[in-house]
User: Which sequence fits this backbone?
């Protein structure tokens, strides 16, 4: 659409130009050779100076700038890569240290626990021994007491029965006969009283 | 002046007449705009290359983008052998671009709308490319006119066509730029004239056309500079690499 209008307008404008040619004798100023030499001269002068300045001074600087930027960016990327590697290595080291110290802590803990358990065991053994000793002594004492008890009871029984008899009968009784009776009784009833 | 759309292309003397022998090299409006264009180019690129900061400012970015744009254009079309000619093609592209763009400012003169200017540029390129071709390949450069894989019967015809097309390069190169510039500027002037002649009632339509055309012409100004430079690269590629 725009293209069509464009070309139609060009056509139209040339039509217009023709009229202009008819109106003025000049025609296309481009085809008037009056200033051709001047234009060529100034073109060569300006373009030549511009080319020289651009090629000798400005373009090398721009290319230099671009190169130095590129190399600097590359350097920075390299440095960043190096930093990353360093930090990776450090991270690894750190991880190792942490795992090592964890292991160490574990072993220390285990040792401590073992030691504590050993201590407890030793103490318990000592205590057990003590308790056993005490129990054994107590048992011994009890045994001794138990063994002595019938004799004492017999004695008490003999004395009591002799005094009882003395009070009841009013006469001296022979202790040996009473003790024989008591012995005989206690032998018969010992099982009943002492549970042996 | 306003009535004639061609009067914008008039060249007139500024200051006194300067004559060297039989030649008139007076300073004209064309000379003025050539100087303006080249001075602006040098200014922009000087400012753009002065400081070398890692983060470029706007003008440095502009200069470096132009540099990489042209350098990529050359390496894409003419290969790495064309590197020594980078400065010339860069200057050429910038010169044509700035002259075209200066022409887009109202009341200015478009240097590239003159056939003599574009023809001198194109002829210089043509002669230069031909000389480079002969220096690089000797008479082997003439192989350019004999494309490979053409049946023998057609060969005489093809060679003639190739020679004509080769010789018409400077003409097509110069006329393309000149005609585009002249036609665009003439058309804008014509539509501007319509705005005045149709007045407040009917002038709005050509005015809107004028606005659209201005955008189009700015595009054409860039495009023609690009085409001029890329065709130079293609011709240079023929001379440097000689595969047809």
Assistant:
């Amino acid at each position: 659409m725009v293209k069509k209008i464009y070309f139609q307008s060009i056509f139209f404008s040339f039509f217009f130009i023709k009229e202009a040619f008819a109106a003025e004798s000049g025609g296309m100023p481009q085809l008037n050779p009056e200033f051709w030499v001047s234009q060529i001269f100034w073109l060569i002068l300006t373009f030549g100076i511009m080319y020289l300045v651009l090629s000798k001074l400005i373009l090398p600087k721009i290319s230099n700038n671009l190169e130095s930027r590129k190399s600097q960016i590359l350097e920075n990327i390299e440095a960043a890569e190096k930093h990353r590697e360093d930090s990776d290595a450090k991270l690894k080291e750190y991880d190792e240290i942490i795992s090592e110290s964890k292991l160490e802590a574990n072993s220390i803990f285990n040792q401590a626990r073992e030691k504590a358990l050993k201590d407890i065991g030793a103490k318990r053994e000592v205590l057990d021994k003590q308790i056993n000793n005490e129990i054994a002594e107590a048992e011994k004492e009890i045994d001794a007491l138990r063994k002595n008890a019938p004799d004492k009871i017999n004695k008490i029984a003999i004395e009591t029965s002799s005094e009882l008899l003395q009070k009841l009968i009013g006469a001296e009784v022979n202790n040996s006969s009473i003790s024989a009776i008591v012995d005989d009784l206690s032998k018969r009833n010992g099982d009943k009283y002492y549970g042996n | 002046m306003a009535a004639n759309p061609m009067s914008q292309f008039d060249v007139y003397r500024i200051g006194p007449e300067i004559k060297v022998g039989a030649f008139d090299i007076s300073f004209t409006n064309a000379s003025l705009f050539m100087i303006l264009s080249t001075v602006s180019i040098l200014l922009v690129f000087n400012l753009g290359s002065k400081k070398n900061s890692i983060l470029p400012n706007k003008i440095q970015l502009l200069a470096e983008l132009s540099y990489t744009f042209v350098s990529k254009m050359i390496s894409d079309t003419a290969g790495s052998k064309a590197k020594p000619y980078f400065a010339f093609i860069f200057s050429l592209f910038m010169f044509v671009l700035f002259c075209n763009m200066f022409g887009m400012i109202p009341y200015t003169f478009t240097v590239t709308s003159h056939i003599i200017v574009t023809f001198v540029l194109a002829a210089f390129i043509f002669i230069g490319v031909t000389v480079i071709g002969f220096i690089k390949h000797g008479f082997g450069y003439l192989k350019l006119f004999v494309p490979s894989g053409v049946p023998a019967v057609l060969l005489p015809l093809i060679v003639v066509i190739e020679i004509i097309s080769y010789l018409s390069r400077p003409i097509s190169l110069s006329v393309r730029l000149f005609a585009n510039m002249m036609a665009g500027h003439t058309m804008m002037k014509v539509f501007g004239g319509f705005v005045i002649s149709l007045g407040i009632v009917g002038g709005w339509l050509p005015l809107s056309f004028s606005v659209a055309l201005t955008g189009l012409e700015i595009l054409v100004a860039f495009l023609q500079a690009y085409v001029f430079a890329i065709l130079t690269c293609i011709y240079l590629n023929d001379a440097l690499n000689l595969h047809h």
